[in-house]
Amino acid sequence: MSNAKEIQRKIGSIKNTSKITKAMELISTVKMKKAQDLALAKKDFVLEMLRVFTRIEEFLKDFIYFRRVDSKKTLAVVITSNKGLCGGYNVNVLKKVNEYAVENSDEDIEYITLGKKAAAFVARTGNTLAADFSPEFTDNIDPRFIKTVTQLIYDKYLTGDYGKVVVFYNYYVNSIKQVPVAREFLPIDDAAVKKYLEDIIDDKDALTEIAHDVTDYIIEPSMEAIAMDVIPMILDMMFYDIVLEAKASEHSARMVAMKAAKDNSKKIADMLTLQYNKARQWMITREVSEIVAGVESLKDA
């Protein structure tokens, strides 16, 4: 009987785990959808940004954010999660960081981290941590938080000490596939910025209208001054997209991991239920046998 009770206790524990993983799966699904919606909710703003960018594009050839610096110092921005239970999400992006470090061993890399897993990795490997934004890095991404991170990136890059800024994160392909990437964020060229804006708009008529707009505007105070405001805004938006991609990937990975855990819990619960039924059947059979044996012994007496 003690064996059957132990199996029953395990079944209860497994079923409770299944309920928890199912709830976590549903929560991750909602959060993933929210991150996707945020990434798409800026088309009108981007359209106006492209109009302005088209006007100032010819003045950007030697613009400070586009200029390459001859330096072996690299600023790496690593985006992971603050929590676990998301399959290989964190492991994959940290492997990408390791691969990059090995392939570019001549570079002096400093790190900015978003996510406790990234901060722990940098500390564990003995690398230089320039800044950690993990405490402020939540599921509700505030544009003001993005501005805080990017401002630090710009301040460091504009010193001229860093040859490039590389962002490591998981690129969202679909709900079951996320690809770890190392994306060069700075310096950037005008063609890459324009392609980024055009890909978001994804409207041939609107793009044709902008391309053929020959209206002569008076630009004040100057093209250079406007570029100093506009380009950081576009870069902020690009980094915001990267963070949203990373968050969508995190929630997708957790959703898949929790679904797998829920399905495995059900299989284990079914297996234990079968064992429990067999144990009960054995106990009932034994009790019936004992009763029959007792009745037969009374007859003999």
Can you walk me through this structure?
This protein has 301 residues and is of the alpha/beta class. It folds into 2 domains: 2-24 and 262-300, Helix Hairpins; 31-255, 3-Layer(aba) Sandwich (Pyruvate Kinase, Chain: A, domain 1). It is 63% helix and 13% strand. The protein contains 8 helices and 5 strands; from the N terminus they run ααβαβαβαββααα. The protein has helices at residues 2-40, 43-56, 89-103, 116-125, 143-157, 190-201, 204-211, 223-300; strands at residues 73-79, 108-114, 128-132, 164-174, 177-186. Strand 1 (73-79), helix 3 and strand 2 form a beta-alpha-beta unit. The longest helix is centred in the C-terminal third of the chain and has 78 residues, at 223-300. It starts with a helix and ends with a helix. The mean pLDDT is 83.
Strand content: 5-15%
CA radius of gyration is 29 Å
Mean pLDDT across every amino acid position: 83
Relevant CATH superfamily of the largest domain: ATP synthase, F1 complex, gamma subunit
What oligomeric state best describes the polypeptide chains here? single chain
User: Which term fits the overall shape?
Assistant: elongated
Number of strands: 5
Helix share bin: 55-70%
Largest sheet: 5 strands, mixed
CATH topology of the largest domain: Pyruvate Kinase, Chain: A, domain 1
Quickly count the domains. 2
Order of helix and strand elements from N to C terminus? HHEHEHEHEEHHH
Question: From the 3D coordinates, which CATH architecture of the largest domain would you assign?
Answer: 3-Layer(aba) Sandwich
Q: Pick out the low-confidence regions.
A: none
Cα-to-Cα separation, first versus last residue: 31 Å
Structural class: alpha/beta
Specify the number of helices: 8
